[in-house]
Design a protein that fits this description.
The complex is a heterodimer of chains A (250) and B (254). By secondary structure, chain A is mostly helical. In chain A, helix 1 crosses helix 5, helix 3 packs antiparallel against helix 5 and helix 6 crosses helix 7. Chain B is α/β, with parallel strands linked by helices and 254 residues long. Chain B is built from five helices and 14 strands. Chain B has a five-stranded mixed beta sheet with strand order 2-5-12-4-14. A four-stranded antiparallel beta sheet of chain B has the order 1-7-6-11, with no helix packed on it. Chain B is elongated, with a radius of gyration of 29 Å. The chains are: A mainly alpha (250), B alpha/beta (254). The interface between A and B is large, with 88 and 79 residues. Strand 2 of chain A pairs parallel with strand 10 of chain B.
């Protein structure tokens, strides 16, 4: 019995704040990447069509925030991997904590980061529209105004948040497995080769595509939410269980 | 370097920077240290900036979205021209986009919307058709020549619009047309200046975040285009002699 016995919730909160501070630089990197992606997107993608052999052409300029979304997802995946590195683990046990509190604080950190990344990636579309208008002039906007259709903004935020969080958890789980046993590096390499190779009897990309379609082709909000919650919680539980018995410091 | 490679390079840079941070030992001093508060202030500033641009964009939405959208076509030109089905059996064979040649050859009426200009010229004993450039290069029009049965000594010139379709959009009006120059008994097809026009600027929300939206507007994964040069239909007196060094671009209507 101790005079001051901290609860799990207190520890998780403290660790969450600690992780925010420890990974503060990652957020600056994210902002710089998003700003760079916005600049690139404002320039746009030019599709030119020659209509005669004298090299006359017409050009269609397409602006989109695709790059911002992709960069947010890659950032989440890399940061998810970083959260379980040896350095980060050692830092986490600098004060009173448990494996569970460490994982819960990591999960909170991933939730918070996904929210920031999701909001930024979705709202970047408005910045691209506005500066694209200044750069190129009037355009044909193939998306409704937020005032006219606020539901669309909400759905976009939910979708971006879900995908970014999923990528966080995938990176986190992969890294957790690798930290537990290096043999998983070989296993993941094998899975990668299998998923990208095809011959007469095996079509890896087809299986990979089936997984992508499982999430990507879902149009029902309810099923989409269910699929993502199950996948995210599943990955989190797996990561928690497999690292539960690892040493605090090696 | 293609513009599409830049995001990939950016991604590689982030991976390298983060990998460097991961491997950097705790004892190693960084070249310069940014205070943690600065990182959080930067994020807060960025989010506020995005919210402000969203508000401004919404205020000026109608102005930003004021470009006239290109005409959408219903029947697909390339489907009917590249199909294994005989042209005559295709559903929209007599539709405006693909039937000018057919209608000229069969003396049928052509939709007046496709006519760019009709001109008449006095006819002599001969008509010389001359290209100011190699007609295998450039935007050479196809010339259809029909001999009139009446004794009218005038040449009627019908100049039909070129066709440029990108996916389902009709950009025919964006194609510059160089009209023939008529002097005494001579029609000259002038060399066309090289033209580069931006015909449309589109904005699409990222495809991924439209997944749950009821009406999605996805951008093309790859544009396809179809082009047909302008067509000139000349109705000439029955006895008029055509003088031309090469008749590859001349089609005589029976």
């Amino acid at each position: 019995m101790y005079l001051n016995e901290p609860t799990l919730s207190d520890i998780v909160k403290k660790q969450f704040r600690f992780k925010l501070n420890a990974n503060a630089a990652s957020f600056s990197t994210f902002v710089l990447l998003q700003a760079g992606a916005i600049v690139l997107s404002i320039v746009g993608t030019n599709s030119s069509f020659f209509y005669s052999s004298d090299e006359s052409l017409v050009t269609i300029i397409t602006l989109s925030n695709d790059t911002n979304i992709v960069i947010a997802m890659v950032w989440a995946f890399v940061l998810g991997i970083m959260l379980t590195t040896r350095n980060k683990q050692s830092e986490s046990f600098s004060f009173v904590s448990t494996r569970l509190s460490n994982h819960l604080s990591n999960f909170l950190f991933m939730l918070f980061s996904s929210l920031i990344a999701g909001i930024s990636a979705v709202l970047s579309g408005s910045a691209i529209k506005l500066f694209g208008f200044i750069f190129h002039g009037e355009m044909v906007v193939h998306s409704s105004s937020i005032v006219d259709n606020p539901n669309n903004l909400l759905l976009q935020l939910v979708t971006a948040f879900a995908y970014i969080l999923l990528l966080f958890l995938i990176g986190y789980s992969i890294s957790s497995l690798v930290q537990t046993n290096k043999i998983f590096i070989a296993l993941f390499a094998l899975i990668w080769i299998l998923a990208t190779s095809m011959n007469g009897s095996w079509n890896g990309p087809e299986y990979a595509l089936a997984i992508i379609k499982f999430f990507g082709s879902e149009r029902s909000i309810l099923l989409f939410t269910l699929k993502f919650i199950v996948a995210i919680l599943g990955l989190f539980v797996i990561s928690t269980l497999i690292t539960n018995r690892s040493e605090v410091r090696n | 370097m293609g513009i599409n490679l830049l995001p990939i390079i950016l991604i590689i840079i982030i991976v390298l920077v983060l990998a460097y941070q991961m491997t950097k030992s705790n004892n190693q001093k960084a070249a310069f240290v940014i205070k943690r508060n600065v990182h959080f202030k930067l994020v807060a500033f960025f989010i506020v900036f995005l919210i402000m641009t969203t508000v401004v964009t919404e205020i000026f939405y109608s102005k930003i979205n004021s470009a006239t959208p290109p005409d959408k076509i219903e029947n697909h030109y390339d489907e009917e021209y590249n199909s294994s089905i005989p042209l005559e059996e295709t559903e929209n064979y007599h539709e405006e986009y693909n039937s000018i040649e057919y209608q000229i050859m069969n003396h049928e009426d052509i939709d007046s919307d496709l006519l760019l200009e009709k001109r008449t010229h006095p006819a002599g004993q001969t008509l010389t058709i001359q290209w100011e450039h190699d007609f295998y290069e450039g935007n050479s029009p196809f010339i259809y020549i029909e001999r009139k049965q009446t004794g009218d000594q005038r040449i009627e010139e019908f100049l039909y619009k070129p066709l440029l379709i990108v996916d389902d959009y009709d950009f025919s009006n964006a194609v510059d047309v160089t009209k023939p120059i008529w002097t005494d008994n001579k029609m000259t097809i002038p060399e066309k200046a090289i033209n580069d026009t931006t015909v449309a600027t589109f904005f699409y929300d990222a495809g991924l975040i439209q997944q749950l939206m009821k009406s999605r507007q996805l951008q093309s994964t790859g544009y396809s285009s179809e082009y047909r040069a302008p067509i000139i239909h000349l109705k000439i007196p029955a006895e008029l002699e055509i003088v031309d060094s090469d008749e590859d671009y001349l089609y005589f209507v029976d």
